[in-house]
Write a structure and sequence with these properties.
The protein is an alpha+beta fold and 153 residues long. The protein is built from five helices and five strands; from the N terminus they run αααβββααββ. A hairpin with a 6-residue loop joins strand 1 and strand 2.
Length: 153
Amino acid sequence: MERVYPAEPLEAPKGTGDVEATNSPPEHQQLLMPPAPPSYDQATGTPAETTGPAPTPTATPKTTTTTTAHTVVVVPSSPYGPEPQDILCPHCHNYARTRVSYKPNSRTHLIALVLCLFQLYCCVCLPYCIASCMNTNHYCGMCDRYLGTYDRK
């Protein structure tokens, strides 16, 4: 593969024969310019990895092995269950039993729809009266603040 850019300038600027003298700015401009940032190797302490053509066969590639440790964090969905529980409230810091209330979810509405499709109109209200068809919301028994929800699956 050929290089796209030449390693050297194609022509020397007219009027000077020295290439390096034209690359550096005058001394008064050097004082005004900020210093160049450090190279990647200096900043990170590790040599830069480059992608491109394969190395020449005369160079011996160094093989390094790296091991990475992965940490898996398992987060429980909800510490609450379908029944009231004795807890230490994070809001009022009292030890109390939770008060539960039930809220219909999409599964409750789906059961009612199926009962309606089977023309069991008198049974359509049953999923809304049975606690096991709904989600359970837990509230503190002392300060009455919301603590969490038990989702029926």
